[in-house]
Amino acid sequence: MHRAAVAVVAAAATVVLASGCSVFRHDAHIVGAGGDPVGAGGLNETESHHPYLLNDIVICLDRPGDAFITDVTPINPHNGLTVTDFAAVPRIQVNGGQMTGAGNTIADVTATPSREVTQACPPETETGIDGAQYGYTLFVQYIKPDDRSAWDDGMRVAYTSGGHRYTTDMHFQFALCTKGDPSPEVDHDQLCT
After folding, report:
1. Which residues pair with 170 in a beta bridge?
2. Alpha carbons 44 and 14: distance in angstroms, whole number
3. What is the rounded end-to-end Cα distance, in angstroms, of the chain?
4. Angle formed at CA 91 by CA 9 and CA 93, multiple of 5 degrees
């Protein structure tokens, strides 16, 4: 079993309205904690049809309110990289040791998966760049269909807030790597070693 632990340099986002209208002023929007996203990560020697978790994304709301995540999809996926599940878990549970265990699926790490986000991001001056105990860890479960390396250019988080639909794009590369994969598109220095 591989434990998916990927360091993402930062996790933040751009809010885009999914319905094509203007952003409603009072709706809360999901953002990444700590500013604009930068970085990449990969898991080495992964297997096809086996779930792996990306678990270092910290999200919160840009203002008090609530949002419900309806979907998470890869941006520009290559070689069949697919999201199969996702959950938002309060960071106080993650950092406070209230998780049920470690593993490669959402069910392995929490008995109470949720898709609701209700906590606003605290000011950076109070908590540091990643929000410490604030916000939520967004767990994203991926698979790949065959023995080639598979990757994306980030993820699109779809959600509702105030009865309106929105998306948040989180831009970073993530890969499920295959040892010795000759795919020239994979940046082996950055994603796969």
Report:
1. 155
2. 29
3. 19
4. 140
Q: Which amino acid is at 117?
A: V
Q: For residue 52, list its beta bridge partners.
A: 142
Cα distance between residue 184 and residue 186, in whole Å? 6
Domain ranges of the chain: 14-176
The pLDDT of 97-118, averaged and rounded, is 74
Q: What is the pLDDT of residues 45-56, one digit of tens each?
A: 889 999 998 877
User: Considering the entire predicted model, what is its pTM?
Assistant: 0.79
* Inter-residue contact 60 to 126 (CB < 8 Å): no
Encoding tokens for residue 107?
Answer: 């069910």
Rounded to the nearest 10 degrees, how much is the dihedral formed by the CA atoms of 34, 37, 40, 46?
Answer: 80
- Token pair listed for 30: 């999901």
How far apart CA 18 and CA 27 sit, in angstroms, is 14
